[in-house]
Amino acid sequence: MKIIPIILSGGAGTRLWPLSVNDHPKQFLPLVSERTMIQETLLRLKGLELGNPIVSCGEGHRFLVAQQVGEVSQSKPSIILEPMAKNTAPAIAAACMAARKQDEDCVVIVLPSDHVIRDVKAFQKAVMTAAKDAYDNNTLVTFGIVPTFPSTGYGYVKAGSVQGDVFLLERFVEKPCLEKAEEYLASGQYAWNSGMFVFRPGVFIEELKKYSPEMAELSVASYKNAKSDDDFIRLDAASFGQIKGDSIDYAVMEKTDKGRIVKLDAGWDDVGSWSALYEIASKDDNQNVTKGHVIALDTKKSYIRSESGRPVALIGLENLVVVDSPDGLLISDIRQIQNVKKIVDILKNRK
After folding, report:
1. pLDDT single digits (tens) 46-88
2. Which residues pair with 264 in a beta bridge?
3. pTM, entire model
């Protein structure tokens, strides 16, 4: 059974400004290791029986994808260029068409390009469980992250009855309030929604036709009418542009009766903010995380990063995020770091 990775690399990563910017978003940055996040996504699959990876991205990132994936993949990737952002479901449908062309009998694993997973062995074991169920039973499998605290920042999936080695996918839940999150954690039935999926590409396309027929038709047409040049597959803009974009969750997974869950406990994080990076990083005796030319005197519980080449010095401070880059300087109370997206919006309005 061949597993073909589909890597989704269309995100902008605005919550990690000023390091993550439109021309060079977070998936192309070495945020948690010496490798970039898109490279780590591929490397954690090493050792499985893989087909050539398929990466879906925007036109502006095509050379970054080609370079970075080429550095870690022994097989030549297929790089699908989305004419415009239409959310995950159309991108996955087009990539499934490419996977079927490569191997009609394959299973695909759909992975965002910006996750952290610390326990690779546990992850690969879960992948094989999901792949076997998807291959044998024509199911659409998602990974439910075993929650470690009552998060209000993640969506949830509810696991139903056991179906062999997997759970029935009972329902999706939006990001809850704290009281609900505590209730979900205590019940043991809920897991964080990982945004990672395993299925046969033909099964996904058939389910998309059933529940979102217009999207399915236009997504398939955008691939069939695509133009290839060099290493890139350019989806047909006329077809793709007509699609009413939607996520895979809303378009298919919340409606299908083929949904299954494999629970995953592997040190997962989607690294959506500077505070998330602070939580997963190694800290010094003062509970600081530092990278680059940093001097921290009498400073505690802070994330301090210099990517500009300049020294960054803090004295007598705590609970801060300080990130200095060639594109800007961010200084924030770590408890308000979620508002960095507002800064990006202001910068966009100021052009």
Report:
1. 999 999 999 999 988 999 999 999 999 878 889 999 999 999 9
2. 145
3. 0.92
Output phi, psi for 161, to 5 deg.
-70, 155
For 237, the enclosing helix (H) or strand (E) is helix 237-240
Taking the C-alpha atoms of residue 75 and residue 127, their distance in angstroms, rounded to an integer, is: 20
Residues with Cβ within 8 Å of residue 86, at least 6 apart in sequence:
240, 243, 245
Of residues 312, 321, 324, 318, the one with CA closest to residue 339 = 321
Helix (H) or strand (E) holding 260: strand 259-264
Q: Which of 230, 259, 227, 257 lies closest to 240 in space, CA to CA?
A: 227
Question: Hey, what are 125's tokens?
Answer: 């074991």
Q: Check: CB of residue 140 under 8 Å from CB of residue 252.
A: yes
Asked if 190 and 151 count as a contact pair (C-beta separation under 8 A), the reply is no
The size of the chain, in residues, is 351
Q: Report the alpha-carbon distance of residue 190 to residue 158 in Å, rounded.
A: 4
Q: How far apart are CA 318 and CA 299, in angstroms?
A: 5
CB–CB of 158/190 below 8 Å?
yes
